[in-house]
């Protein structure tokens, strides 16, 4: 059974940092697009960052470029999102998601567009940025 479990959320002051983790079980993250999404109260869920397990290519929403870094530890079957210089507008529930594709080009498209129909989702972890 495919399962994704997020951890690492919490309360942090503006300008602070957090590292989110997403542990995968039941499958190995080979040839997957693995992404972080977030949903703030009253807003639609949006893609934040994505990594292609085929070649390690990374993708970021404009709102987080230069502040967030996505990475993957293959040995631990875990994905991370390092978030620096956090802002109040980063407050949201953060979800990790994964979707398999057969070709690198398909993984690229998944990561560029980060559609909401990723097949596997975690339960989410709350990130609150407030003084």
- The fraction of residues in strands falls at over 45%
Tally the beta strands.
11
Shape estimate = globular
> Which structural class do you get from the secondary structure elements?
mainly beta
Q: Please estimate the helix content.
A: under 10%
Characterize the main sheet: 7 strands, mixed
Question: Would you mind describing this structure in some detail?
Answer:
This protein is mainly beta and about 130 residues long. It is built from one helix and eleven strands. The strands form two sheets. Strands 2, 4, 5, 6, 9, 10 and 11 form a seven-stranded mixed β-sheet that branches. A four-stranded antiparallel β-sheet has the order 1-3-8-7, with no helix packed on it. Strand 7 and strand 8 form a beta hairpin. The longest helix is centred in the last third of the chain and has 10 residues. It is globular. It starts with a strand and ends with a strand.
């Amino acid at each position: 059974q495919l399962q994704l479990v997020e951890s690492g959320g919490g309360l942090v002051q503006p300008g602070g940092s957090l590292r989110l983790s997403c542990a995968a079980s039941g499958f190995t993250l080979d040839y997957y697009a693995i992404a972080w999404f977030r949903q703030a109260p009253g807003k639609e869920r949006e893609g934040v960052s994505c990594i292609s397990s085929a070649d390690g290519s990374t993708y970021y929403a404009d709102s987080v470029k230069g502040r967030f870094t996505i990475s993957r530890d293959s040995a631990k079957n875990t994905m991370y999102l390092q978030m620096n210089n956090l802002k109040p507008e980063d407050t949201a529930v953060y979800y990790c998601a994964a979707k398999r594709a057969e070709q690198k080009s398909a993984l690229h498209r998944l990561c560029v567009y980060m559609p909401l129909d990723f097949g596997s989702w975690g339960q989410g972890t709350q990130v609150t940025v407030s003084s």
